Amino acid sequence: MQATFLERYTENGLVVRSEAGTAYFRRPGKMRWEYEAPEKDLFLVDGKTAWFYVPGDHTVTRVPAKQSADRRTPLALLAGEMKVSRVCARVELDSSERPTNEGNVVLRCKVRGAPADGPDQPDDRQTADVPASPHGGQGDTVLFEIARETGELARLLVRQSGGVQVEFRFENWRTNPPVPDSLFRFDVPPGVAIVNGELPAGDAAVK
Question: Is the Cβ–Cβ distance between 171 and 118 less than 8 Å?
């Protein structure tokens, strides 16, 4: 699958960073995010390893995909790597959240491992067979906006404590586009330094 995307990182209602580009998803568990504006960066998951390449810095960061806490990692759902049930303890309609398009519906995901909503609700931590999702920590709100007619993902919204919000908007979905296998393989360019480990968690510019 292929789509154009807009990614926005917001703190306390102010947009800290906004970027756009094209994303590709292929089973099993492969993704390629080509950032085109304001800078050309690349985030790629080849099924085993997540790579973040910054041409301007001549560096590439790599980390095992299953250990990555990057905000794009949960979108492996689109690449058939995860099931919704492994990410969300419950999925329900959210009538309080206004969709970006009247023809869309907003679904709220209760992240596995998060505290129960109330005293009458079961504690999902006792039944979860996986740790809390890379969507975020306990208490995060995760919303999916879906087009009713097509079932396409229009928006993913993650709200964190402290007024932090990460949003992805998608358009121009294409199914089975003619792309080569090499698109999901990262070959380290000459002169580029490889950094092992997670992306800096404290950097607001990190996607």
Answer: no
Q: What does the H/E/C string look like for the chain?
A: CEEEEEEEEEECCEEEEEEEEEEEEECCCEEEEEEEECCCEEEEECCCEEEEEEHHHCEEEEEEHHHCCCCCHHHHHHHCCCCHHHHEEEEEECCCCCCCCCCEEEEEEEECCCCCCCCCCCCHHHCCCCCCCCCCCCCCEEEEEEECCCCCEEEEEEECCCCEEEEEEEEEEECCCCCCHHHHCCCCCCCCEEEECCCCCCCCCCC
pLDDT one-digit tens code per residue, 152-188: 999 999 888 788 898 999 999 999 999 999 999 999 9
Let me know if 42 is exposed, middle or buried by CB neighbors in 10 A (0-12, 13-18, 19+).
middle
Residues whose CB falls within 8 Å of the CB of residue 124, separated by 6 or more in sequence, listed in order: 89, 90, 110, 112, 113, 114, 116
Q: Which CATH class is domain 2-196?
A: mainly beta
pLDDT tens figures, 114-126:
555 444 444 443 3
Give this prediction's pTM.
Answer: 0.78
